[in-house]
Prior knowledge:
Blueprint: H1 4-21, H2 33-38, E1 42-46, E2 53-57, H3 84-91, E3 102-103, E4 106-107, H4 109-127, H5 134-138, E5 141-144, H6 150-155, H7 165-174, E6 181-186, H8 197-210, E7 219-222, H9 228-236, E8 240-246, E9 257-263, E10 275-280, H10 287-304
Parallel strand pairs: 5-7, 6-7, 6-8
Antiparallel strand pairs: 1-2, 3-4, 8-9, 9-10
Amino acid sequence: MYQEDEVRRMVQEVLAGLVSAGVGTPAPDAAPAAVAAAAPAVAVGSAGSGGGRVAAVAVEDGEVPDVTAVSTKDEFHVPNPANRQAYLDMKQSTVARLGVWRAGPRYNTWSLLHFRADHATAQDAVFTDVDPGYAAEQGFVAGQTLCGSKDEFLTRPDLGRKLSDETKALFGRELTKGAKVTIMVGDGLSTSALVNIPQILPAIKQGLKNAGIEVGPVPFVKYCRVGAMDDLGPLVGSDVVCLLIGERPGLATGESMSAYMAYRPSEDKPESWRTVVSNIYAGGTPPAEAGAHVATIIKRILDEKVSGVDLKL
């Protein structure tokens, strides 16, 4: 059985070997001050024939720097590129993992750690439940679909499209019936996306208010799929239902949100009847900007009395 100091020594030897081989750490343009600030025990050394620099991370108190502090847009690991600046400029236009380089046939260490960290972020977004007090803190009317747990939500999408009987009764009492617009919020496949609500929701409300359209109480639906808006539509009788819901996360972000809008949604309407604005988060379409755009689309839907593919934007 290895003792802790022996394990620590072996880890430090492996890291030292990676540094001497020029493997697994960011190039100079890719190691911003954020990483250095996050990890005081970072030493910089030569990377060998690549001419770059790499950060040798020493293990101190069992902690290493947060690799996600560095954006994939700022990482660059290709040794001796023919046109470094063009490569970096291209990376700024996409979150794709370009220029990650390799160690033999494998990812280098830094790229692999970043990949696994982003994957963990995506898993957290999917599997984390909404805080029980979230709806009350936001002033929402809290309800739930027929799903009784996160596991059931993930394995039974059909149940996530139906409001529970208790929720229908509650919404029937608390929500404004016959309103022109009802905005609903759902957790969807990313509870992390709810971080956008404090910016996008006021922007939508303000945009509608400027058009003379008032919005009533906002329902929050736990374990929500997009189809739940079709269940809510006939219940409240609104001309337009707008659902703000967390998107299925990827490796780029776990905070992306979508806004689905439909004119008088119901179960007999096809999915093509919905209009959607997606990729709403700080690194995509900023939530405040998206809110203003959503309000404009809702006004168009009300004017033309159609949505989805029938709405010509």
